[in-house]
Structures are given as structure tokens and as C-alpha cells.
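Help needed: design a sequence for this.
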């Protein structure tokens, strides 16, 4: 999406890769955080179901 051309005008989109990098970095960190939280919750769930 970032590198695609507008087929009608033949121009790249206004949003450059550098413009979206901070958002991508934030989302990546948030995804990693949620993945860890999910793993922790899964461990708790597994522990509770074996008790």
C-alpha cells in the first residue's frame, strides 16, 4: 500500500514510509506486549484447569 502508485495519476501516495514508521514501531511493540500478556494468561488458565 505504501509503495503502490495511484493508477489514475501515476503518483505515489502522499504518505511516505518515514511517515508511517513511528506508527508501525508502536504497533509492533504493542503486539509484542499483548503476545506476552496472552502467554501469561494462558499459563494462568492452564494452571487453574489442572488444580
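Sure. Designed sequence:
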Amino acid at each position: 500500500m505504501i509503495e503502490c502508485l495511484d493508477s489514475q495519476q501515476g503518483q505515489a501516495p502522499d504518505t511516505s514510509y518515514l511517515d508511517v514508521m513511528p506508527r508501525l514501531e508502536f504497533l509492533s511493540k504493542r503486539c509484542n506486549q499483548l503476545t506476552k500478556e496472552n502467554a501469561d494468561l494462558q499459563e494462568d488458565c492452564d494452571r487453574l484447569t489442572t488444580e
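The two ends are 49 Å apart (CA to CA).
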